[in-house]
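Below: protein 1.
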Amino acid sequence: MKRFFLGYIGIAVSMFFFVTSCSLDNDCKDCVNPPSSILIKIVDASNSQENLISDNIYNSDSIKIWYAEKDGNKTKVDFNLISTGWVQNVIETNIAVCSEIGEFSNFYVYLNQSDTDTITIKVIKHSDGCCTSFPLDSIAVNGKSAEWDTSDYSLLLKKNVEKD
């Protein structure tokens, strides 16, 4: 009987160490996934395949992105022109990083002296108890629902342009 009882104690002690060792091992280690970059294509409204930077309708040197802060100040937002697959001159920007978490934030895309578009985004904070992420909750362009290119998940900034 004593041997039987010691066997149960041995199993109980082993289970205790196994369970506590698993709970003490923190696999999370402050896991944080910052907001992702946003890809923007400036395209012809009648043909989403026509990139207006590549077609020289807009000059990449004149494009600027500004964040409108609540106090009225504007902060310049960096961006890069990248290539995705077969498409060149796609704007990659970190506007989601600049936005205020849980609130709508406005960004102005200056294409040239007379052509400015407003992108409004809302980034939220999500935590699953281990990792924290900052997904994009909503996005609008000039007050309307954003349109996306499903091949590379880039935001389509559609422009009506007159061509020669």
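Below: protein 2.
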Amino acid sequence: MNFVLVPVPADHILAVMKWVLFRAEADHKGVGLNDASTTLVSLLRDAEPELRSWLGAIAEAAIRNVPIQLRDLADDRNLTTEELLEAISDLNHSVLDSDRELIEVSTETAIGVSGNTGKIVRLSMPRNFARLIRAEIRRQAPA
């Protein structure tokens, strides 16, 4: 059994636990990065330009380690947030197995300057998938 103990800052414990579970589930189910890679590459080959566009935007944000806001992405693509969330949910259920998500949706509470509170929905994806998506989109781009 290979393992390493590493101190993790309190702010990052949840993210590290998600990553460990993500990797453990992939190893346990026999669905590793290679199987997911094949699925993603075939998805991108058959995808409409609109889907490739917003997947590329989420991938770029994930690579930069800056989650993109759902509202911003929806506005840029002339979609409602509900339409985009539905498309993300459908994609998450169809691309990877049921326990893993290609696009992670997280909700945070934000406090405005005037003290008002609201919810911010952010989108991200695992960096290994983000790199794969970016590379495949670049490969498919016309020269």
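Residues 40 and 64 are 20 Å apart (CA to CA).
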